[in-house]
Amino acid sequence: MTTILVPYHQDEPLPPDTIPLREPTVTVRPDLPEGALWPRLNALHAAVADAVAAHDQPTVLSGDCLVTLGVLAGLQRAGIDAAVIWFDAHGDVHTLESSTSGYLGGMALRLVLGAHADLAAEPLGLRPLPEGRAVLVDARDLDPAEADFLAGARVRRVGVGDLADLPDGPLLLHIDVDVIDAAELPGLLFPVPNGPSTDAVLTAARQVAATGRVAATHLSLPWHPPTENDGPIRARLISALLGA
Q1: What is the C-alpha R_g of the chain?
Q2: Where along the chain do its domains lie?
Q3: Which GO cellular component terms are attached (predicted)?
């Protein structure tokens, strides 16, 4: 199994052991330019795209959802036109105009769909994903602007138990671990209650994998640095997701 570790949250390196992964195949740590955020993010995501394009069916682990831009761009560089299955407790479909917090992670899927292409997609050479090629799984914490967008968009919304009808062709499986009920996973940056269990998410991930069409997997791990108590929980979760 090819594992690509991207130990960053946005453009900031993560403290050691935030992502407890033993012996990744590749660790992406490019020299980022000084200065503004978007050029730094684009340099990071370009390095991710290079690593993804160089490996067959990789699993990428990172500290936020924005890295999906690099994963999808890498697949496209390798000639793979993948749809996206997006597990997340949040919609991630804000824009710079609609977001009240300005947090870019809350825009990740919308950027993949082509929002602010001059800032995100175009510098990577990324072809934005058509809305009908995106499936949003168990997004239950939506701001009003996100709900309005999704009500008129072709993005399909499903629960973890309703993945029978997936898009045709290759798939990019994106799992933000905050899709799991917050009571089961301590230390999340943006915990959301009333979600599926870890076992339910693993079962759904196996269902997607069983199609034989997963070209890459991205595990987004947006959590605080580990404590003595939650470090082992995270290590077990990563191991289980890699096995799924």
Answers
A1: 16
A2: 3-243
A3: cytosol
The contacts found for 124-131 with CB under 8 angstroms, 24 or more apart, are: 124/42, 124/45, 124/46, 124/49, 124/69, 124/70, 124/73, 125/73, 125/76, 125/77, 126/69, 126/72, 126/73, 126/76, 127/76, 129/72, 129/83, 129/84, 130/154, 131/155
Q: What angle do CA 218, 219, 222 make, to 5 degrees?
A: 130
User: What letter represents residue 112's amino acid?
Assistant: V
What confidence tens digit (pLDDT) does each residue in 40-85 have?
Answer: 999 999 999 999 999 999 999 999 999 999 999 999 999 999 999 9
The predicted model scores a pTM of 0.97
Q: 3-243: which CATH number, 3.40.800.10, 3.65.10.10, 3.40.30.10, 3.40.640.10?
A: 3.40.800.10
* Residues 153 and 161 sit within 8 Å (Cβ to Cβ): no
pLDDT tens digits for range 164-203: 899 999 999 999 999 999 999 999 999 999 999 999 999 9
Q: Considering only 31-35, 102-106, 141-145, 228-232, which range has the smallest mean pLDDT?
A: 228-232
- Could you tell me which of 241, 68, 117 has the C-alpha nearest to residue 233? 241
Supply 139's token pair. Answer: 């997004």
- Supply the DSSP string of 191-227, one letter for each residue: --SS---HHHHHHHHHHHHTTS-EEEEEEE--BPPP-
